[in-house]
Design goal:
This protein is α+β, with helices and mostly antiparallel strands. The protein contains 26 helices and eleven strands. The strands form three sheets. It has a five-stranded antiparallel β-sheet, sandwiched between helices. A four-stranded antiparallel β-sheet has the order 8-9-7-10, with helices on both faces. It has a two-stranded parallel ribbon with strand order 6-11. Strand 4 and strand 5 form a beta hairpin.
């Protein structure tokens, strides 16, 4: 749209959001209350899985085995400990048989097997004091979880001569879901007061500090309601709630910081309340809208992946970003309209000030730090080659550990060491010769003779990396084999064995599943769709930044520098969580690999947040460049007016992410701490050092675009700049609306430019 049309649209928007501020806030209060009701219980409807590709061979095979051979896919394991007695002791065996019979009669249990029934060595510990009862609970993830809740208390604990513990895949996921909910509540209780203190330090005014928190709470509650609705149609991961809290607070605070800061600047420059709001929406408001679009696009890219774990973050991320932007552009201006200059009330920093050493006005209070950022930017640009080279090399070096990344699957070691389901799985992993449900299953479909089944079994047993083959177990026109690989259940050897099994010829149709097969298929699905996701993010980012700046080179610079800002995060993820450094300090167990979907999620979230800060800085630089035509001055001006703001926003968002990172679940810890590091590196290194250095080296060519694209930008581009005439038109239109409400200040007497 043209600049004039854009100003007219924003002018109408200003009149709309300020005409009935009390009514707008009352409507928001009612809608938020409804969102609280609609979103209640959303966590109970979420799943804790979603890493599998639904269209993969392993998923199909698992579904067939669950239907035709329920005993082959146990999801409930009872670890029976005979204490000092052997599991073959008559008293222990009798009690174990009673438990097995009782479990078989439970509603919802499709099949039960045990060591005492099958005498399978895989179900007996090597020391002979523990053995397993394995069962299949019917239903999907949620249904199986409900069955577990119902029956687990009756089996957990002491039964005569044995002690029983409950484990298995459903128990692991169920316990993970409960811990995540508890940790999320604790994170919110940590983040909210700390964030409020930081906002008071940034704004000084307690009133101004409360506004961003209000926007964040509205965004979080609204997103929970949206997710509750989505669970009616598709699966949603419980991990998505962590992103809802983090982005809801983080982005709402970013947007509110930007808008409130600009509003206070306009008031300090002499504008009345309504004119200040109009200028703020035309400048900072446009930037917020633009930023929200860039973040939403980065998160929406996860929709291309088939795993519902990743898609869930897209659902939550898009909802919370758009709601945070809507609250910042609708509710916040209404609140500012009512507050006016009182937004500076309750300046709590006065308690810490020494008389005569601190400025009293908001404008003066920001002058010193602004000058500091200006001097810093001049220093960086004076030594631009040095800063550019040293910073780039440093970021690349920090990212080098990621070259050694190993991908795996999430397992019980995500949980704290004291979690019951993890204890059971560790006993099985360390003390049993084979892991029930942890091998590789081969499904054979189609008519075959016993000789053909036997011959195929011999060929499987001859493959490298095979420790043992059980089966075939036949039913109707199909059969399955249980193949135990040598080494780790999802190690590289097991993954290679999956590929060998799929390539092995057979006289019937075969398909393969198991933990290693799920990992192979998940990696393939991500590798297949990753170029599409990255392409969507890059192309849309280039387009949006071009529309903002009118430059061909700045969008390319933004993408490259954003990518550099993520190197430290990816390097730290491998060095800490894969290699196990700091595992004692951070209280987690390293599995020697990274869950396959986590780097994709972290890339999309961190890239979007980096663009958030990039848009804030570039919009202010562009505004001043349009006004003066002085390239270096515009860079200095942009850093002076946004450097402190971006740093404050990054620190606050990092606090929220670190609070999320205190989770006892390793993947959540990795997500929170990794993104906190990426945000701080972007704000304090890339925006402060690399951007001014690179823009200095590029000079005025930074703003180059071919003539056709310049014409396109003039017609359709967006800019934070404005003309005095546009401000005057909005002031006059606002005064016309003022009488309808009686809330506004006096008729505007000042014409404020964007550079004020």
């Amino acid at each position: 749209m043209s600049e004039v049309n854009s100003s007219e649209h924003v002018g109408r928007w200003t009149r709309f959001v300020t005409a009935r501020p009390r009514l707008a806030l009352l409507a928001a209060l009612v809608i938020t209350a409804l969102a609280v009701f609609a979103g209640s219980g959303v966590a109970d409807r979420m799943g804790s899985g979603g890493w599998e590709a639904p269209d993969a061979e392993s998923t199909y095979t698992t579904q067939v085995l669950e239907r035709e051979f329920p005993d082959s896919q146990p999801n409930l394991l009872l670890l029976v400990d005979g204490g000092a007695a052997s599991v073959d002791d008559p008293a222990v065996a009798a009690e174990a048989d009673r438990l097995t019979e009782r479990l078989s009669a439970e509603p919802g249990i499709a099949g039960v097997g045990s060591y005492w029934r099958t005498k399978s060595p895989a179900l007996r510990s090597t020391d002979g004091h523990e053995a397993i009862v394995a069962a299949r609970m019917e239903g999907d993830e949620k249904g199986a979880g409900e069955i577990l809740d119902r029956i687990a208390p009756a089996y957990r604990g002491t039964h005569g001569p044995v002690e029983v513990s409950v484990g298995g895949p459903v128990a692991v996921r169920h316990e993970m879901q409960s811990i995540i909910q508890e940790d999320l509540l604790r994170a919110e209780l940590i983040a909210l007061p700390v964030t409020l203190v930081l906002l008071v330090m940034v704004f000084g005014s307690a009133i101004a500090a409360l506004l961003p928190l209000g926007v964040g709470i509205v965004a979080i509650l609204g997103t929970n309601a949206v997710l509750r609705g989505i669970t009616e149609f598709t699966d949603v991961s419980v991990f998505a709630q962590n992103l809802t809290t983090a982005l809801g607070l983080g982005l709402a605070i970013d947007y509110a910081l930007f808008i409130v800061r600009r509003f206070r600047e306009e008031l300090a420059a002499g504008a009345d309340t309504r004119v200040a709001i109009g200028t703020t929406l035309r400048t900072a408001g446009r930037t917020v809208l633009f930023s929200a679009l860039t973040v939403a696009v980065s998160l929406a890219a996860m929709m291309v992946f088939p795993q519902y774990f990743l898609r869930s973050f897209a659902y939550a991320g898009i909802a919370v970003v758009l709601l945070a932007a809507a609250a910042a552009l609708i509710l916040l201006p209404a609140a500012l309209m009512l507050l006016g200059p009182r937004v500076n009330s309750l300046d709590l920093r006065r308690l810490l000030r020494r008389r005569g050493k601190t400025a009293s006005s908001p404008a003066e209070a920001g002058e010193g730090p602004g000058r500091g950022w200006a001097r810093f930017s001049v220093l960086v640009m004076r030594r631009a080659p040095v800063f550019a080279v040293v910073t780039t090399v440093g970021l690349v070096l920090l990212g080098l550990p990621f070259l050694g990344v190993k991908f795996g699957t999430a397992d019980d070691r995500q949980l704290p060491a004291t979690a019951e389901s993890r204890v059971v799985q560790e006993h099985i992993r360390d003390g049993f010769p084979g892991s029930p449900g942890g091998g590789i299953e081969v499904l054979a479909e189609g008519a075959a003779t016993p000789d053909q089944y036997a011959a195929y079994r011999e060929r499987i047993a001859a493959l490298p990396g095979v420790q043992r083959v059980d089966g075939p177990v036949t039913a109707g026109g199909s059969a399955y084999y249980d193949v135990l690989p040598e080494g780790e259940a999802v190690g590289q050897g097991a993954q290679d064995l999956v590929r060998e099994l799929r390539a092995e010829p057979a006289p019937f149709d075969t398909s393969v599943t198991g933990a290693a097969a799920v990992l192979v298929d998940s990696k393939a699905a991500i590798a297949d769709r990753l170029p599409w996701a990255v392409g969507i993010i890059v192309v849309v980012t280039l387009l949006l930044v071009f529309l903002l700046t009118g430059s061909v080179l700045i969008p390319l610079q933004a993408v490259v520098l954003n990518a550099l800002s993520l190197t430290a995060m990816f390097g730290a993820v491998v060095w800490v969580f894969q290699d196990g450094n700091l595992s004692g300090f951070l209280s987690f167990t390293s599995t020697g690999d990274i869950e396959t979907t986590l780097p994709v999620l972290m890339f999309c979230v961190a890239f979007g947040l980096s663009m958030d800060y990039g848009v804030f800085l570039l919009s202010r630089i562009k505004e001043e460049y349009d006004r003066t035509g002085d390239h270096e001055h515009a860079v200095t001006f942009g850093l002076r007016h946004t450097g402190g703001l971006i740093t404050a926003a990054a620190v606050i968002l990092a606090v929220v992410m670190v609070a999320i990172g205190t989770s006892r679940v390793t993947n959540t810890k990795m997500l929170g701490l990794g993104i906190a590091l990426a945000v701080l590196m972007d704000a304090m290194v890339v925006r402060s050092l690399l951007v001014p250095a690179v823009m200095k080296l590029m000079g005025r060519v930074t703003w180059w675009a071919p003539a056709p694209l310049r014409a396109f930008h003039q017609r359709f581009g967006l800019s934070e700049g404005e003309s005095a005439a546009a401000v005057e038109r909005d002031a006059e239109g606002a005064d016309g609306a003022e009488g309808a409400d009686g809330e506004g200040g006096n008729r505007a007497r000042d014409k404020v430019t964007a550079g004020a």
